[in-house]
Amino acid sequence: MVEKPGKTAQEMARDHREVAVSEFFEKNRHLLGYDNPTKALLTVIKELVDNSLDACEETRILPRVWIEIKPDGADRFRVMVKDNGPGMTDKQIPLALGKLLYGSKFFKLRQSRGTQGIGASGTILYSQLTTGKPTTIIASTGNGKTSYYEIMIDVKKNDPEIVSHQFIEDGKIWHGMKVEMTIEGRYVESRKSVPEYIKQVAIANPYANITFDGPNGRVEFPRTANELPPLPKEIKPHPYGVELGILRRMLKSSKSRTVASFLMNDFSRVGGGSAKEICKLADIDSKISPQRLEITDTEKLFKAMQKTKLIRPPTDCLSPLGEDLLIKGLKKEFKAEFFASVTRPPAVYRGNPFQIEVAVAYGGELPQEGSIKVLRITNRVPLLYQEGDCAITKSIITTDWRRYGLSQSGRSIPVGPAVIIVHLASVWVPYISESKQAVASYPVIIKEIKLALQGIGRNLQRHVSGKRKAEMQKKRKEIFDRYLPEVAKAVGKLTDKKPEPILNKLKGILKNYAKVSEDGRGKEKTENSG
Amino acid sequence: MVEKPGKTAQEMARDHREVAVSEFFEKNRHLLGYDNPTKALLTVIKELVDNSLDACEETRILPRVWIEIKPDGADRFRVMVKDNGPGMTDKQIPLALGKLLYGSKFFKLRQSRGTQGIGASGTILYSQLTTGKPTTIIASTGNGKTSYYEIMIDVKKNDPEIVSHQFIEDGKIWHGMKVEMTIEGRYVESRKSVPEYIKQVAIANPYANITFDGPNGRVEFPRTANELPPLPKEIKPHPYGVELGILRRMLKSSKSRTVASFLMNDFSRVGGGSAKEICKLADIDSKISPQRLEITDTEKLFKAMQKTKLIRPPTDCLSPLGEDLLIKGLKKEFKAEFFASVTRPPAVYRGNPFQIEVAVAYGGELPQEGSIKVLRITNRVPLLYQEGDCAITKSIITTDWRRYGLSQSGRSIPVGPAVIIVHLASVWVPYISESKQAVASYPVIIKEIKLALQGIGRNLQRHVSGKRKAEMQKKRKEIFDRYLPEVAKAVGKLTDKKPEPILNKLKGILKNYAKVSEDGRGKEKTENSG
How far apart, in whole angstroms, are the C-alpha atoms of residue B29 and residue B23? Predict the structure, then answer.
């Protein structure tokens, strides 16, 4: 147990060995979102639902997702997520779920919820760590065969450990997947909870039909849209976003015969003309093999790629929600009097296309007291944790909301009866940790979010100031109404006339005035989509 | 480039493959601290210096570290870190530096700077990504042989790629290691910079001798202590900190013949009596083989381990700095009038022993304006980033500093002429990301930090209030001095006596009064270690 002090380099070398990525994340489970039992329960649901929705969309199936959470002894829950997706081939199941850093999305430049191949296998890792039990997976691709697996992860090797494997021969034809596991967790219904998460998923994915059967009963989230958004397309990297070391690797492994064709085939937005221009600027023969470039030439090529004028990356790799769906989503959950949304044109950070959409709900039955509610969404996935470190929060608190009709003290979340939803869609969302709960603060991302916020801010300001004006006029009318008889009497006395006709005349004037003011308010109403 | 919509499960399966951990961190380089050029330069220095200091301490060598940063073209730097440590065996070098998640520290419960085997190889990954160049490593273990390597990382495989390897035959006998690389970076000398980092390293490691040769010249940080702190000892896990999944794995791989001997050999603080007690409580035969336990028995054993009364984990696995070194470190860098420190007894989170030390410097030449300076240190490594998310910052802003004589508005860093240093020593520091810049907010860690802060707060309060009292008395004495002749004259007139003897009497009274007040202040001085 105790080692002698003063080891030698030889002795130290003997202690070295490889750390399996599964063992790394087991020890650092907070990096995957398993810091505490409440967050852990949410993370398990989040990862499994993300996978279900991704699979459905990729295969163009309108998603139907069932979520079940049932107590299973003290601090333990039996958790189940089932979908009507494409299922998974029998052979694929153990690797896709029983091995970390295994997947397809990591290598694709296309908007999707999952990216790293850690999420689903991470849930199994957490389940076995806290309860020692295997996870059950039942899946079928629609071919009449249903696979049944019980899986654990061999943490020292990062390999699936198949506890049980059989086919269920019940003749049923179906497609989809069901994952069921026991985990340590805590169930709450507060701000950062599973019910809140599912509610926000329903807002951001209005074409999904979700059933949640929780410890306190069953809730349905029927779909409010019947069409899937278009499938985002996979793109190739843009020359502006590539890094020198990656360019070097791409050159070495390229199948293209010349540097020019390499540029045209392996990148987006590079045509024959641009390819020649890049090579000329780099002082490189465009016809030599990409494998033959030395590091100094690679560097020259790299610099020339940055300097050559090229069209921005294509943006059909993105699938924003659109203003309609955004507002539909908000209306479904919040009884407000005013709705507005802004969609920014696509932009690019480190070569990765991204797009910001923002919507606001204001007034009505929203609570007057306290901070506004902020929904942070990335690639249709709601984020509930680490808000303080998120580029979305930072953009909100550094926007001056007092000029848009909300209260705000210093750099904080504004106060008022409002809900703001911010959606960041990107082929690669830069999260600050593997648990994917906050967006890293790239200046261009913050700039885009703030521009969108200012857009809805101006709409909000028009509505709030119109509303204030109308309220003030209403109050004035009430005061007039109250004092009109007195005024008529006084005027009658002064002019020595009967007060009744004067009162009627005064009432007539007031009526006209009120009409004008209501018309004025009516104009604002076109802004009100409520 | 464009795929048809509506893929099948079979088609999706074909796209799946393993993601090498190196490729994962290359794409997510911000997780390792490579978000931007300024932070990247700091991260490279930090990781290499951490490794040098760890190696020296483990082999009981008083550390001598040379750091060099020289511009190498636009936005590029040639970076070198050299130490007088144990060096590394020729065979070990490529794996230790050219492979991520490879090392010895991950598996040991003992305080050290490095833990995951990602740091040093991460610097090479970043260097080749941004400059395409290999890293040079020169090392010798003192056997007269000097290894020379140029290394890159095969990112797709997470394996070292040896670009060049030879022995330098110059007959020189030395031990140590030199790592040299070219990176993209930005050099600044502001708050979160390399010079600030090195300055804090010198404070937290006063027994290290550091030379920093930067773009703006050479700075020496001579050692102020000539003895290494004791080498922390490796411990075995404590039964209270183990997780069910890990216990299951430990049982399966144990070499012990019985469950009782397993408990005694593979855990700390379990003697024969406790082992029997645990087995009895779990209703398990203490003599059966640990391999034979089923999951239900494992669970019973797990619960019994938590319920049995055991001594806390040993704490010689920790190596705090000690009050003397802490205050020495502060005095070296800050000209203050008052110093105090508090060391908490060791505590435990999730079975991991940890210990909090806090020291404060106050007044003197420290700036009166602005927030106090906070130095966050974990296992002798200064943290410069992500302070907002760090348990240390959270502990400071949730402490009421107004009662201790500092200004503070709401939950913010207090204002005043003070520097506070917080050191967390632990066998496993729970960082919020792989870049290891902030401590996760475990309640027991925050509690311990706050108790230590309150301790120095009370010392500070006594000093500040004593100082205020003395200042007030001095002012009063000055006023008396000024008006004494007037008073004497007036009293003389009233009593019809000469004013001179009255003035002398009054002066005598004032002198006695002042003496008492200075004595009162003198008592406080014992608190002043300055």
Answer: 10
Chain A residues closer than 8 Å to B130 by CB: 243-245
Question: By CB neighbour count within 10 A (0-12 exposed, 13-18 middle, 19+ buried), where does A176 fall?
Answer: buried
A12 and B86: CB-CB below 8 Å? Answer: yes
Number of neighbours of residue A1 by Cβ within 10 angstroms: 9
DSSP 3-state of B279: helix
The three-class DSSP label of residue A460 is helix
CB contact under 8 A, B430 and A30: yes
Asked if A17 lies within 8 A of B132 by C-beta distance, the reply is no
> What are the residues facing B221 on neighbouring strands?
B210
Do A106 and B27 lie within an 8 Å CB cutoff? yes
CA distance B256 to B265: 7
Which span out of A208-212, B477-481, B505-509 was modeled with the highest average pLDDT? A208-212
Q: What is the pLDDT of residue B473?
A: 79
Counted across chains A and B, CB pairs separated by less than 8 A come out at 216
Which residues of chain A make contact with B1, given a CB cutoff of 8 A? 233-236, 268
The residue of chain B nearest to residue A352, with distances taken between CA atoms, is B27
How would residue A512 be classed by pLDDT, with cut points 50, 70 and 90? low
Specify the pLDDT at position B324. Answer: 86
Residues of A in contact with B234 (CB under 8 A): 1-3
For every residue of B301-321, which 3-state class applies, written as one string? HHHHHHHCCCCCCCCCCCCCC
Separation in Å, CA of A83 to nearest CA in chain B? 14
Nearest of B142, B143, B145 to residue B168 by alpha carbon: B145
Q: Look at residue A217 and give its three-state secondary structure.
A: strand
Measure the CA–CA gap between B137 and B151, rounded to whole angstroms.
Answer: 8
Tell me which chain A residues have a C-beta less than 8 angstroms from the C-beta of B440: 30, 35
Residues of A in contact with B28 (CB under 8 A): 116, 434
User: Residue B80 contacts by C-beta under 8 Å, 6 or more apart in sequence?
Assistant: B66, B67, B68, B69, B178, B179, B180
| pLDDT above 90 (res A459) | yes
Query: Can you give the length of chain A in residues?
Result: 530
Residue A514's pLDDT is what?
54
pLDDT tens digits, A191-202: 889 999 999 999
Closest CA to B80 of B183, B159, B173: B183
For residue A121, name the pLDDT band (cuts at 50, 70, 90).
very high
Q: What's chain A's Rg over C-alpha atoms?
A: 30
Q: What phi, psi does B499 have (nearest 5°)?
A: -75, -25
* Cα A458 from Cα A133, distance rounded (Å): 54
- Pick the closest to residue A393 from A429, A437, A425, A339 (CA basis): A437
Sort out which chain B residues have CB atoms less than 8 A from A73's CB and list them.
Answer: none
CB contact set of B239 (below 8 Å; sequence gap of 6+): B263, B267, B269, B270, B278, B305, B306, B308, B310, B351
Locate all alpha helices (DSSP H) within B295-401, ordered by sequence. 295-307, 323-333, 391-397
Shortest CA gap A417–chain B (Å): 24
- CA dist A411 and B364 (Å) reads 33
The count of other CB atoms within 10 Å of the CB of residue B296 is: 9
Q: With an 8 Å Cβ cutoff, are B234 and A27 in contact?
A: no
| SS3 category, B183 | strand
Q: Does pLDDT of A351 surpass 50?
A: yes
CA distance A260 to chain B (A): 18
Closest by CA to A448, choosing from A313, A342, A527, is A342
* Weakest-pLDDT range from B100-109, B136-145, B199-208, B511-520: B511-520
Residue B358 DSSP one-character state:
E
Mark yes or no for CB contact A245/B99 under 8 Å.
Answer: no
Q: Which residue of B has its CA nearest to A110?
A: B2
Nearest Cα residue in chain A from B295: A132
